[in-house]
């Protein structure tokens, strides 16, 4: 690729300013108007154990700065790849990109997906076309995108137009400006900056990049970032549903987060590098035994079994990857291979090369089978108690149908940005590990899995079923045995059965049948879907009640003042606590302390009824309403396309303007209108929560009927 005026991109190489450490490679890319030294606080926090490479980006630091190229993302990508090849980076590596570096990293990952094992985008700006936003909140979100693309254009043109701003930067403030942008030639640097703003940052939409990514990817940003707003990131999930969004909290979690909170950013980067599982109860000595629970189970639930085995074994329980206290990186796909690697890796660190007995129940039982197949030298014996083997279930099994239907419903929930707006990334952390684990399990062939096992292995089921018959047929002539415990509702939770199976003893007979033998414990997916629906309903009820209360009662001004003062006091406490943390880390804390102190003083002034404080709050609400109305109306006028009806944006903007004007001219009327608007908003959110819960349940029921097509109506009603 050759630029128009002669510079051959293929000949350019970046200056590698930092290349230190040994181990797996992490490449770190800085942002605009900086060099690799800007990332030093973050690199120092990453510690040892990795080879850290941080080049100066094209046009910055000591890297080439030609003015006859576009500085497009493709050109940045090509030069970065050539530089890393020359640096001997051959194996797949971890790429971290901040701000402009994040936009370059996304394009690089889409161009050379086979080169990366992980991708971490930090505060990378993006400006999506309007059709990629959701209708809720579109006006303000797109207005911000329009504002920043316009702002980058204006900044880039300052030198060309020889404006007062450029004259000030290149004149009296030249030394300070050059120090800030890390250059000794401000005029040349401004030209390079303008090209990057126009051809790299402003054109960074991600719409062509994210769908091409095949590696685990994280998009992280600070909650106080003014350039990349957290509420805009949900739109990225439509481009890449597997993308993990991480919001870093704290007073200094703004766009300069690599300087303000490097330790928190480093923790997020390294979080995906930690694969050691959390160890639960451990006791005894002798032959090592590792116990694995079902999905969503805590290792602590194995306590009685560990105690019973401790007389002759070194017994311990592990939390599975993504559950309990174990790491739960949402950028992981939670395949059976991921779980197997985590279990075997943790066991090796605990026991060295000593073989161990591995037992698991439910999904943990299937993981135990996979570990036995993967490393027969490490696993001396495997026990799978009621393992999850969905491909062996009968097509007319109501329990299996309900499990598959719940899986489908949860998968839709995990990618539904409406639910994301209710619960942010918490829903993902609760749902995705389970859904992805089961999804990988459904794509696994039990026949192939059992066929690869050479270690003595025992499958234990509760009662005869299609699964046990199919498993017995597959196990014939292999080191895998199949046992049936009649009368046990769940052999994996029976201490006597588990301990006998681990020790290789005959399984005890269970004489006492359960009180309700036909009632089967709900599978984890169904329990999780039910819990999610319950939370949505509770949240919906609270929002509807709050909305109705606002419609029914006029809030007295003193109550509003007390609530606002309380909120400010809480914010002041959080700010001052963050200030204390900055002081302990010897970081700059004075500005943080001033902000916290002012918040606290203002809260006190509101409680004491200071007229000036009340007027300031009133003025802030009015100005905010006018600004909101103006932004929405500009979007309705200027946006080439909208995700919903354009007239709805006009109505929303006009209504916001009416409220703001009314609060200025007729304060009581304006306050009443604002109260009504908030009430309607809460009622809409509450009814949306009800609708989502109903849709989840309805979808699950419909899917059950589809999976059980052909069953009698009575069976359908029971299963659903």
Describe the structure.
- This protein has 720 residues and is of the alpha/beta class.
- The protein is built from 27 helices and 14 strands.
- A 7-stranded mixed sheet has the order 1-3-2-4-5-6-7. A 7-stranded mixed sheet has the order 8-10-9-11-12-13-14, with helices on both faces.
- Strand 13 (457-461), helix 19 (466-475) and strand 14 form a beta-alpha-beta unit.
- Helix 15 (398-414) packs antiparallel against helix 26 (667-707), helix 15 packs across helix 27 (713-719) and helix 21 (524-552) packs antiparallel against helix 26 (667-707).
- The longest helix has 41 residues, at 667-707.
- The model is unreliable at 512-519 and 710-720 (pLDDT under 50).
């Amino acid at each position: 690729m050759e630029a128009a005026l002669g510079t051959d991109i293929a000949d350019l190489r970046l200056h590698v300013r930092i290349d230190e450490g040994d181990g797996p490679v992490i490449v770190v890319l800085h942002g605009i108007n900086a060099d690799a030294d800007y990332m030093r606080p973050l690199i120092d926090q990453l510690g040892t154990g990795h080879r850290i490479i941080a080049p100066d980006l094209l046009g910055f630091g000591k890297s080439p700065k030609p003015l006859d190229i576009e500085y497009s993302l493709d050109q940045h990508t090509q030069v970065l790849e050539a530089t890393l090849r020359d640096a001997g980076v051959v194996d797949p590596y971890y790429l971290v990109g901040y701000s402009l570096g994040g936009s370059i990293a996304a394009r690089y990952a889409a161009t050379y997906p086979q080169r990366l094992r992980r991708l971490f985008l930090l505060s990378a700006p993006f400006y999506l076309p309007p059709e990629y936003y959701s209708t809720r909140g579109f006006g303000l979100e797109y207005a911000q995108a329009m504002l920043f693309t316009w702002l980058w254009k204006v900044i880039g043109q300052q030198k060309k137009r020889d404006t007062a701003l450029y004259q000030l930067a290149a004149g009296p403030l030249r030394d300070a400006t050059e120090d800030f942008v890390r250059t000794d030639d401000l005029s040349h640097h401004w030209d390079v900056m303008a090209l990057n703003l126009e051809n790299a940052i402003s054109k960074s939409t991600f719409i062509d990049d994210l769908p091409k990514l095949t590696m685990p990817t994280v998009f992280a940003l600070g909650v106080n970032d003014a350039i990349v707003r957290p509420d805009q990131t949900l739109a990225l999930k439509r481009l890449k549903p597997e993308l993990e969004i991480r919001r870093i909290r704290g007073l200094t979690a703004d766009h300069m987060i690599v300087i303000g909170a490097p330790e928190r950013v480093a923790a997020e980067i390294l979080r995906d590098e930690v694969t050691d599982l959390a160890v639960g109860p451990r006791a005894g000595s002798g032959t090592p035994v590792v116990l694995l629970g079902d999905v969503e189970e805590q290792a602590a639930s194995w306590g009685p079994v560990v105690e019973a085995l401790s007389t002759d074994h070194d017994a311990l329980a592990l939390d599975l990857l993504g559950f309990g206290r174990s790491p739960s990186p949402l950028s992981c796909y939670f395949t059976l291979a991921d779980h197997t690697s985590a279990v075997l890796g943790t066991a090796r660190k605990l026991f060295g090369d000593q073989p161990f007995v591995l037992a698991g129940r439910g999904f943990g039982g299937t993981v135990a089978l996979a570990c036995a197949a993967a490393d027969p030298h490490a696993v001396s014996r495997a026990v799978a108690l009621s393992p999850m083997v969905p491909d062996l279930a009968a097509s007319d099994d109501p329990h299996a149908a309900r499990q598959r239907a719940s899986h489908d419903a949860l998968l839709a929930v995990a990618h539904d940005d409406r639910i994301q707006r209710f619960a942010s990334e918490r829903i993902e952390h609760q749902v995705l590990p389970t859904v992805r684990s089961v999804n990988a399990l459904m794509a696994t062939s039990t026949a192939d899995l059992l066929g690869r096992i050479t270690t003595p292995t025992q499958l234990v089921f509760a009662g005869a079923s299609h699964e046990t018959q199919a498993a017995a047929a597959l196990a014939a002539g292999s080191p895998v045995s199949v046992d049936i415990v009649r009368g046990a509702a769940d052999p994996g939770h029976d201490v006597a059965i588990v301990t006998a199976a681990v020790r290789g003893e005959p399984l005890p007979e269970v004489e006492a049948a359960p009180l309700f033998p036909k009632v089967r414990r709900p599978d984890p997916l169904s329990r999780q879907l039910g819990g999610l629906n319950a939370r949505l309903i509770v949240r919906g009820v609270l929002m509807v009640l709050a909305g109705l209360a606002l419609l029914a009662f006029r809030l007295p001004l003193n109550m509003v003042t007390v609530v606002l003062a309380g909120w400010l006091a809480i914010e002041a406490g959080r700010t001052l606590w963050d200030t204390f943390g900055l002081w302990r880390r010897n970081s700059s804390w004075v500005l943080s302390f001033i902000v916290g102190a002012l918040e606290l003083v203002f809260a006190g002034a509101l409680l004491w009824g200071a007229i000036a404080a009340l007027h300031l709050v009133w003025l802030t609400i009015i100005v905010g309403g006018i600004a909101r109305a103006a932004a929405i109306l500009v979007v309705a006028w200027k946006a080439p396309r909208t995700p919903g009806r354009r007239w709805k944006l006009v109505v929303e903007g006009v209504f916001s303007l009416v409220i703001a004007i009314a609060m200025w001219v007729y304060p009581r009327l304006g306050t009443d209108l604002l109260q009504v608007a908030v009430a309607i908003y809460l009622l809409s959110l509450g009814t949306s929560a009800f609708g989502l819960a109903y849709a989840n349940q309805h979808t699950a029921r419909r899917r059950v009927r589809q999976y059980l097509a052909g069953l009698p109506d009575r069976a359908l009603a029971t299963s659903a």
